[in-house]
C-alpha cells in the first residue's frame, strides 16, 4: 500500500507544482474554475482515489488520502479535489456507484466550496449516504479563503445507501476534519519553507534576519508545530485505516485540534518574520495563510473537537485516562 | 534544508502484557505515595523502589544478557518508561544509569568497566549523577573548566560541577572534564574527556542546594585534588564532547520530556466534571499528549534502529516541555479549590513550582530551539 501511496503522492506533487501556481490561485479566488488543473486530476483518476478498485477506483485508504491532502495543502491547491475524493469514497462504501466529475460533500451548517461547479452532492448523515443532483446553488464566497462557497438547493435524492458500521453517524464530518487537518499540515510546511528562505535572504543591520536569535527562536517553535501537525495527521490516517472513521474519532479529533492550534501559531510566526511584505496582496504568503485560517474552521473548529474528546475523557474519569490513551493501537493482553 | 521526519511507530506486541505487569506493580508500590512523589516524578529518589524495579528486569532491559541485561527491544523499554512516568514513580535512583550512563559504558566503556558497573545498575543498586554543568558553564557547556591533569596511574581533578541532581544520594557520576587546554577559543570543544567518578572519593565534597520548593534536589560538587584512576576514563581521551553530545540524544529523547506533569491531569480529572470550561481544555491537552506520544515513540524507534536522532530529540523535548509546563497552568484555571480534594490542590501547587525546571534541565528551551533553527538552515 505504501508503494502506491508514494507513487500517487509523487504524481500529485508534480501536477500541483506545475499547475497550482499563484496566478491560478488568484484567478480561482476571483471565481475562475481551474479547469486545466481539475481535468488533469481527473485524468489521473484522483477523484475516485478512495473508491475500491472493484468499483472502478484506485482503492486507496484514509491514510493514503491524508498524505495526498497534505500535499494538496502544501500547494494550496485551489480545487475541491479532497472533498470530491471523500464524497466518492463515502458513496462507494454505501454501495452507491459514484458518478464521474466533481462530487461536492455536504457538511452540517457549512457552505460547499465550488458547489456551483459540482455535478453532484453527497450527504452522509446518521450512517446513511445519499447522492443528490442539486437543482440550484445559492452562490457565496468564503470571507477568508475567498473561494466560491455555495449553498445547495436539494431535489429528491438520486440514490441512498447505508454505510458500514465502521463509518459511524458522523462519517462526512470525520472525513472533512481529516481533510482540513491534513491540508493545514501541508500548508504549514510550505509557509515554513518560504519563511526560512526569506529569513536567509532578507538583510537588516547588515546581515540576514535569520541570523538573529529572536527570529531563529520563532521559526524553531514554528517547526515544532509543523512537525506536530504532520504527526497528528499521519496518526489519524493510520487509525482510520485500522478502525474505520468512527473508530478513529479520537485521533481525527486530535489531528484537527493540533493542526488548528499549529495553524494559528504557525501563521502568526510566518507573518511576523515576513513583516510588512507578507501583509501585502502582492506577496504569495497570504494565499497559504488565509487558507490555513479558513481550514481551521472547516468541518468544525478545534474547540468543538476538543469538547467532544474532553467530554468523553471526563465521563471515563482519571483512572482510565492513561490506559485509554495507550490501548488504542494495542491488542488487549490475553 | 531537510525537514525533520517522524515516521509513526507501533508499540511492540509484548506491550499489553508488559503494561499489565507494570500497572499491578505500580498500583501496589504507589499506594502511599504523597503528592510530592509524582510532583518530582523522575527526579524523585527511592533506592528501595529502584531495587524492586531492578528485580523485575526493568532496568537495562535492552543490554546484553552477559551483563545481566534483558536483551529486549528499545520499544519494550519505552513501554516501561511511559508506564512509570504516567504515575510519577520515583525512578531517579536508576533513571540516569538506565538512560545514559549505562548505555555510554556499554557503547564506549572497557570490558572491565562494563563488568563492574552494568550488573549493579541493572539490579538498581548503583545510582548515577550527570556531571556536565559548572558554575560558569551552563548553556555554553563547552566552556567548562573543571580539569583533569595527568598524574601517575590516573588523573588529578580540580574544579566544580553544579546542578547535579541527587548527587548526594548517588554512587557515581559521569563527568565531562577538560584534559587538555583548548587549542584556541573557537575550538573549546576539543580537549574534553569523560570519566567515571566515585562520589565517595577523597577530596570530593557535595553540597546540597535547596530548590525553590525547599527540597534538596540538586548539588554543587567541589573537586579538590580528587584522584581518578586511568581505568575510569570512558571512551577516548579528548573525544568527550562528541561522546557527551551523543549521550544527549538519549537524555533528550525519552517520554520524560512530555510526561512530567501528566499525573496531575489524571489526579484532577474527576473533580473537573462540574467545570464548564473543562471539556475543551482537557480535550486540547489530550490531543497534544497523544501527538507528543507518537512523536516520542518515533524517536524511540530511531534509537532502536541505531540512529542518533539528536535534532529530532531536541524538537520533541522542546514541544514536550511546552506541554508539560502548560498542563499545571491549565488545571489551575479549571479547579475550584473549595470543592477539590486537598491532595489534588497540593499536587497542583507542587507542580506549579517544579514545572519551571522542565524547560531548563537537559538543555534549555533556547538552546534546543537554536539546534532546531540550525537544522532548518538558519545561520
How would you describe this structure in keywords?
heterodimer; A: 334 residues; alpha+beta; Butyryl-Coa Dehydrogenase, subunit A, domain 1; Butyryl-CoA Dehydrogenase, subunit A, domain 3; 2 domains; three-stranded antiparallel beta sheet; 11 helices; globular; B: alpha+beta; Butyryl-CoA Dehydrogenase, subunit A, domain 2; 8 strands; 45% helix; 15% strand
Strand content of chain A: 5-15%
Determine the structural class of chain B based on helices, strands and strand pairing.
alpha+beta
Topology of chain A as a string of helices (H) and strands (E): HHHHHEEEEEEEHEEHHHHH
Indicate the percent of residues in helices of chain A.
55-70%
Q: For the CA atoms, what is the radius of gyration of chain B?
A: 21 Å
> How would you characterize the largest beta sheet of chain A?
4 strands, mixed
Which second-level CATH architecture of the largest domain in chain B applies?
A: Up-down Bundle
| Overall form of chain A | globular
The overall number of domains of chain A is 2
Instruction: Based on Cα principal axes, name the global outline of chain B.
Output: globular
In the predicted model, the low-confidence regions of chain B spanning at least 5 consecutive residues are none
Indicate the CATH architecture of the largest domain in chain A. Orthogonal Bundle
Please name the two chains that share the biggest interface, counting residues whose Cβ lies under 8 Å from a Cβ on the partner chain. A-B, 62 and 60 residues
Main sheet of chain B: which strands, in order across? 1-4-5-8
Order of helices and strands of chain B: HHHHHHEEEEEEEEHHHHHH
Sum this structure up briefly.
The complex is a heterodimer of chains A (334) and B (379). Chain A has 334 residues and is of the alpha+beta class.
Describe the protein's topology.
The complex is a heterodimer of chains A (334) and B (379).
Chain A: H1 2-19, H2 22-29, H3 35-43, H4 62-74, H5 81-93, E1 103-105, E2 112-113, E3 120-123, E4 128-132, E5 136-138, E6 149-153, E7 159-162, H6 171-201, E8 203-204, E9 207-208, H7 213-247, H8 249-274, H9 285-297, H10 302-316, H11 318-327
Parallel strand pairs in A: 1-3
Antiparallel strand pairs in A: 2-6, 3-4, 4-7, 5-6, 8-9
Helix pairs in contact in A: 1-3, 1-4, 4-6, 4-7, 5-6, 6-7, 6-8, 6-9, 7-8, 8-9, 8-10
Chain B: H1 15-29, H2 36-40, H3 47-55, H4 74-86, H5 92-108, H6 111-122, E1 128-131, E2 147-151, E3 154-165, E4 172-178, E5 192-198, E6 204-209, E7 218-229, E8 233-234, H7 240-253, H8 262-268, H9 278-304, H10 310-334, H11 342-354, H12 365-376
Parallel strand pairs in B: 1-4
Antiparallel strand pairs in B: 2-3, 3-7, 4-5, 5-8, 6-7
Helix pairs in contact in B: 1-4, 5-6, 5-7, 7-10, 8-10, 9-10, 10-11, 10-12
Amino acid at each position: 500500500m505504501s508503494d502506491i501511496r508514494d507513487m500517487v503522492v509523487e504524481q500529485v506533487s508534480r501536477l500541483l507544482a506545475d499547475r497550482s501556481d499563484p496566478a491560478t490561485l488568484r484567478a480561482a479566488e476571483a471565481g475562475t474554475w481551474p479547469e486545466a488543473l481539475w481535468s488533469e486530476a481527473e485524468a489521473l483518476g484522483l477523484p475516485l482515489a478512495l473508491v475500491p478498485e472493484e468499483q472502478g477506483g484506485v482503492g486507496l485508504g484514509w491514510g493514503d488520502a491524508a498524505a495526498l491532502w497534505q500535499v494538496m495543502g502544501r500547494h494550496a491547491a485551489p480545487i475541491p479535489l479532497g472533498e470530491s475524493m471523500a464524497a466518492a469514497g463515502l458513496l462507494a462504501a454505501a454501495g452507491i456507484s459514484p458518478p464521474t466529475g466533481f462530487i461536492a460533500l455536504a457538511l452540517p451548517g457549512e457552505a460547499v466550496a465550488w458547489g456551483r461547479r459540482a455535478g453532484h452532492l453527497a450527504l452522509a448523515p446518521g450512517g446513511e449516504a445519499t447522492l443528490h443532483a442539486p437543482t440550484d446553488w445559492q452562490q457565496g464566497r468564503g470571507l477568508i479563503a475567498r473561494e466560491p462557497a455555495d449553498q445547495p438547493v436539494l431535489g429528491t435524492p438520486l440514490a441512498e445507501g447505508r454505510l458500514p458500521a465502521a463509518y459511524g453517524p458522523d462519517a462526512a464530518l470525520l472525513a472533512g476534519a481529516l481533510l482540513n487537518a491534513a491540508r493545514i499540515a501541508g500548508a504549514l510546511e510550505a509557509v515554513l519553507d518560504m519563511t526560512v528562505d526569506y529569513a536567509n535572504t532578507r538583510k537588516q543591520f547588515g546581515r540576514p534576519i535569520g541570523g538573529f536569535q529572536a527570529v531563529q527562536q520563532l521559526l524553531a517553535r514554528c517547526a515544532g508545530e509543523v512537525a506536530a501537525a504532520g504527526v497528528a495527521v499521519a496518526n489519524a490516517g493510520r487509525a482510520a485505516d485500522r478502525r474505520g472513521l468512527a473508530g478513529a474519532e479520537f485521533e481525527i479529533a486530535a489531528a484537527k485540534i493540533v493542526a488548528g492550534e499549529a495553524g494559528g501559531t504557525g501563521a502568526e510566526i510566518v507573518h511576523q518574520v515576513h513583516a510588512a511584505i507578507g501583509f501585502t496582496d502582492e506577496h504569495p504568503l497570504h494565499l497559504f495563510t488565509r487558507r490555513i485560517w479558513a481550514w481551521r474552521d472547516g468541518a468544525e473548529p478545534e474547540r468543538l473537537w476538543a469538547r467532544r474528546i474532553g467530554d468523553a475523557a471526563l465521563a471515563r474519569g482519571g483512572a482510565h485516562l492513561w490506559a485509554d490513551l495507550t490501548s488504542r493501537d494495542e491488542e488487549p493482553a490475553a | 534544508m531537510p525537514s525533520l521526519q517522524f515516521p509513526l511507530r507501533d508499540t511492540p506486541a509484548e506491550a499489553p502484557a508488559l503494561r499489565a505487569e507494570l500497572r499491578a506493580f505500580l498500583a501496589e508500590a504507589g499506594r502511599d505515595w504523597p503528592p510530592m512523589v509524582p510532583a518530582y516524578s523522575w527526579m524523585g529518589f527511592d533506592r528501595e523502589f529502584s531495587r524492586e524495579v531492578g528485580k523485575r528486569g526493568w532496568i537495562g532491559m535492552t543490554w546484553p544478557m552477559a551483563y545481566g541485561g534483558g536483551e529486549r527491544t528499545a520499544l519494550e523499554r519505552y513501554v516501561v518508561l511511559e508506564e512509570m512516568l504516567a504515575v510519577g514513580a520515583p525512578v531517579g535512583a536508576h533513571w540516569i544509569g538506565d538512560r545514559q550512563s549505562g548505555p555510554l559504558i556499554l557503547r564506549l566503556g572497557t570490558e572491565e568497566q562494563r563488568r563492574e558497573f552494568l550488573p549493579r545498575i541493572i539490579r538498581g543498586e548503583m545510582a548515577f549523577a550527570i556531571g556536565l554543568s559548572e558554575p560558569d558553564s551552563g548553556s555554553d557547556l563547552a566552556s567548562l573548566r573543571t580539569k583533569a591533569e595527568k598524574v601517575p596511574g590516573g588523573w588529578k581533578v580540580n574544579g566544580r560541577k553544579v546542578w547535579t541532581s541527587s548527587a548526594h544520594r548517588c554512587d557515581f557520576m559521569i563527568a565531562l572534564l577538560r584534559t587538555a587546554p583548548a587549542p584556541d577559543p573557537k575550538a573549546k570543544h576539543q580537549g574534553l574527556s569523560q570519566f567515571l567518578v566515585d562520589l565517595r572519593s577523597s577530596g570530593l565534597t557535595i553540597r546540597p542546594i535547596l530548590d525553590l520548593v525547599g527540597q534538596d534536589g540538586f548539588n554543587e560538587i567541589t573537586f579538590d585534588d580528587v584522584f581518578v584512576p586511568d581505568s575510569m576514563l570512558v571512551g577516548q581521551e579528548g573525544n568527550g564532547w562528541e561522546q557527551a553530545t551523543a549521550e544527549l540524544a538519549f537524555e533528550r529523547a525519552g517520554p520524560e520530556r512530555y510526561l512530567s506533569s501528566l499525573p496531575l491531569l489524571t489526579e484532577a480529572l474527576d473533580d473537573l466534571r462540574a467545570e464548564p470550561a473543562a471539556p475543551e481544555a482537557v480535550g486540547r491537552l489530550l490531543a497534544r499528549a497523544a501527538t507528543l506520544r507518537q512523536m516520542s515513540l518515533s524517536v524511540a524507534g530511531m534509537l532502536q534502529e541505531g540512529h542518533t536522532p539528536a535534532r529530532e530529540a531536541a524538537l520533541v523535548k522542546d514541544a514536550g516541555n511546552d506541554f508539560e509546563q502548560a498542563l499545571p497552568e491549565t488545571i489551575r484555571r479549571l479547579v475550584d479549590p473549595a470543592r477539590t480534594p486537598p491532595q489534588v490542590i497540593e499536587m497542583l501547587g507542587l507542580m506549579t513550582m517544579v514545572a519551571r525546571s522542565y524547560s531548563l534541565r537537559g538543555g534549555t528551551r533556547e538552546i534546543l530551539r537554536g539546534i532546531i533553527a540550525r537544522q532548518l538552515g538558519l545561520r
